[in-house]
């Protein structure tokens, strides 16, 4: 028989959490892009191009980190997932809380 190696449940949960953060960053970037386009067509100030570009870059970095986390094993997956969470925290701090 073939032995199948299974992952620990905690690692699967960790990947799910980091994946949710990555998706949230992408959706936030898309929402800001939509608001900026709407504001630009109506002569309103909008969030600003620098904020939109920062969120798009953060979304791309988070998705790349999540792909690495999904394909890696054990500690590499944990580290990549932590990187996604750090990117999310930095975006929230720099653009929303500070």
Automatic annotation (TrEMBL):
Name of this chain's protein: Uncharacterized protein
Protein's UniProt keywords contain Transmembrane: yes
Assigned keywords, A-Z: Membrane, Transmembrane, Transmembrane helix
Originating organism: Saccharothrix mutabilis subsp. mutabilis
Membrane-spanning intervals of the chain: 20-39, 51-69, 76-96
Transmembrane listed as a keyword: yes
């Amino acid at each position: 028989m073939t032995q199948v190696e299974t992952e620990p449940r905690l690692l699967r949960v960790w990947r799910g959490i980091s994946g949710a953060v990555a998706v949230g960053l992408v959706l936030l970037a898309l929402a800001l892009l939509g608001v900026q386009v709407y504001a630009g067509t109506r002569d309103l100030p909008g969030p600003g191009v620098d904020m939109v570009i920062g969120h798009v870059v953060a979304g791309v970095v988070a998705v790349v980190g999540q792909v690495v986390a999904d394909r890696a094993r054990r500690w590499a997956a944990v580290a990549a997932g932590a990187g996604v969470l750090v990117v999310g925290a930095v975006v929230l701090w720099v653009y929303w809380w500070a």
